[in-house]
Amino acid sequence: MIEIIKKTFLAVIVATLVVGGVTPSASAIIGRLDGISDLLLRELPAIDTSNLSKARGDAWLAEDANGNELLYAYDTAEDGGSLQKYLYKYSTAGDKLGRVDLSDDWSREYPEEALQFFGRDGYLYSTGFYSEGGSVKTCTLKRSAAGAAVSEFCDIPGSNNDTKGRVYAFAALSDGRLIAAVYTGNEGQNDSILVISNSGEYVKSVSLPEGIRPSGLSTYLIPQISVDESDAVYVHYSGVKFGASSIGVSGVVKFDTLDSTPQVVMHLDDFFATWSGMSPNAEYFAFSGAQVSTATYGMNMYDKTGRLLGEAGTTEGVQFADQASGSGVDNIGILYYRNIEHKKINRFAPNFTRAEFTQSLSGKSADLEVGGNASPLRAEIKSQAEIGAPNDTGKSYLFGLLSFVAVVDSTDPVPVEFIVETDLKPSDVEARKYNSLTKQYDTIPNAVITQTAIEGRPALKLAYSVTDGGALDEDGEVNGMIIDPVGLATSGGGANEGGSWQGGVVPGAPSTGVGKGTDVFMYLLTLAGVVGAATIFAIGKRFVYSYLGRK
Predict the structure, then answer these.
(1) Where are the domains of the chain?
(2) 379: nearest Cα among 388, 394, 369
(3) pLDDT tens-digit readout, 154-201
(4) Most CB contacts within 10 A, which of 210, 461, 535, 551?
């Protein structure tokens, strides 16, 4: 997981604090990020896409078969008098990883419009729209991740198994089955959700729950269908009605399986989303669109509980416009937004200040606080065995390993405090740094360990500072990332703590599966200002017909 965060643009701190027992936990214990200091999301340095020539088009984030998060950006270029279509691949750190030629392998000319997506089955899909004889024909080309054609099928059937549908949102399960939101023929409506076999045959239709769609909506969209790491399907919906009593709704519905009863994960009133995105691990959601009552356009990010993590504001060179579109959210809550006008992909993150481990395997709690202009995006506790750390001669670690990811925007020292509930005294432990590259431990200079309390219960607090490129930075480079494994060690092995942690247990919080890393701070944008009802409706229409990336 650490390697995924290795290249970043602000200082990213990845610290591993050895604070507990050698007994491996079944999985990492994830801390709940909290203490949002500002609901205006902070901007990360953008990914440069100046190599792309296209005036407008889509970009999106997907997780490949190896669990790596990648960005795909649509582009066109003149070649020998014809217009060629490409998908360029980038890492979430901005590395250019090559391109896929989309113009070849179709049985006919490249479609007028095409929706590209990467499926959970590891294949790349292009769904194209053709106009033939006054009707729309839909064809889908399935490619390998490298771009080689695998199969093609056309004429996706509708819910009655004989009508032709125009697909506006698409996703693939790990077994190759496809989920499609299909245009039903009613203006502004695309709420027919089909399950399609991996050979393009109609399987069945699924329906959203009753009551999430108010009566009288003039436009009702399914801007996105997502599949998480466990193959659960998430259908994103939105709708709007303008007039004397305007209505707006947006939200997400989850199907644990395609045969299960759907559950509403999130529902937003008074908001009409023209784009929505979800992290691959289903921990984070983002919506861009219009707040109907105030006629303002903006972008918000939430966690899976519906907690607002931040909202967007415009800055120089970062704005919502016709030539920009949401691109997705990664597994640690960084939001990506393709800004074609300025030829970049903007990145934003919430302003967390701490992580709380409210429940642990031993019933003990712990807290992490990061000061300065820094923000943690991930915090977890593991055992030494889980990170492959050898024994530290003559030392024992009674609390596990704390790893956290954070970003800062300078090389100024970043104060870090880790508090763990324990009966031990400061004189019983020492602060140690673990280097996962050399597999060696060293004493941390200038670390301060004091006695404190967590909600009245005895605890120890370790305080120290880390700097990008400094002595505690494992790679030793000023590269926007600090890798700083440190920990609390006791002399000897197998120590108990007042009889409460026999053999050593890892303290922490329930595993939530919060994902892997890159940076933090995602400063989302709120393009404030009056957007008239007709303009908002036009934005929605434009999204429906041109967010796919084509012309």
Answers:
(1) 8-40+353-491
(2) 369
(3) 776 554 444 445 677 889 999 999 998 876 655 555 567 889 888 888
(4) 461
